[in-house]
Amino acid sequence: MSKSRIEVFRTMVEKNPNDVMVWYGLANEYLKQEQFAEAVEALRQTLRLNPDYTAAYQMLGSALQNLGDEAEAVRIWQEGIETANRTGAWKARQHMESLLNQTKSGGFCS
Q: Fewer Cβ close by (within 10 Å): the C or N end of the chain?
């Protein structure tokens, strides 16, 4: 019997707890399974390890919104936009600005 992708990533996290890409990959797998709370924790760890990882801000905001925490999602996207401005990640900034605009207008699409 083969391991699930989540189990594979969990094993990788145990072996490499400071690997940002492994945490991000685990979060992505959690999102695919709509395990939003677990994704939030993995993404927060991703950002603890690399606070400049703009894609993690995008994903974290979306996971939070799916959990019904829109205020925290907005805060995270705003923080992500500031980070994107500082790091020059213009594409990530545009995406998060779009997410914020959709949130403000009442329509959300991750």
A: N
Reported as a single tens digit per residue, the pLDDT across 23-72 is: 999 999 999 999 999 999 999 999 999 999 999 999 999 999 999 999 99
CA 39 to chain centre: 7
- Nearest Cα neighbor of 37 from 11, 12, 72 is 72
We report the CATH number of the domain holding residue 24 as 1.25.40.10
Distance CA 50, CA 77 (A): 16
**Domain-located, residue 110:** no
> Considering its fold, how many domains does the chain have in total?
1
CA distance 11 to 65: 28
Q: Is residue 88 part of a domain?
A: yes
Residue ranges of the alpha helices (H) in the chain?
Answer: 5-15, 20-32, 36-49, 54-66, 70-87, 90-104
